[in-house]
Amino acid sequence: MEAIIIKPKDKGELNFFLELAKRLGVSAKTYEEMQDEQLLKAMEINRKTSKTDKKKVLATLNNILNEKQQDYHK
User: Fold this and answer.
1) Which of 32, 39, 2 is nearest to 18 (CA)?
2) Which residue from 51, 2, 50, 7 is spatially nearest to 27, judged by alpha carbons?
3) With contact defined as beta carbons under 8 Å apart, do 16 and 8 qualify?
4) CA geometry: angle 50, 53, 46, nearest 5 deg
C-alpha cells in the first residue's frame, strides 16, 4: 500500500486533514503516533529478550548521570 505525507502549516490545518481523512473513511495517523507505535513494538520485542543484565544497564545509567560534565561555555 502506498502512503502520502502532508505537512500542515499549523495545528488547525493538521486537525482539518485528520478530520477529512476520518470522514472519507481513510486511515490517518500523525508522524508522532507512528513513531510511538514503532517504539512500542520494538520495546515489546526487546522486553522478551534476556541479552542484557539489568544491573549492568542500571550501573551504566548511574555512571552517565554521575559523570562530571565538561563546561562547554568557555
Assistant:
1) 32
2) 2
3) yes
4) 40
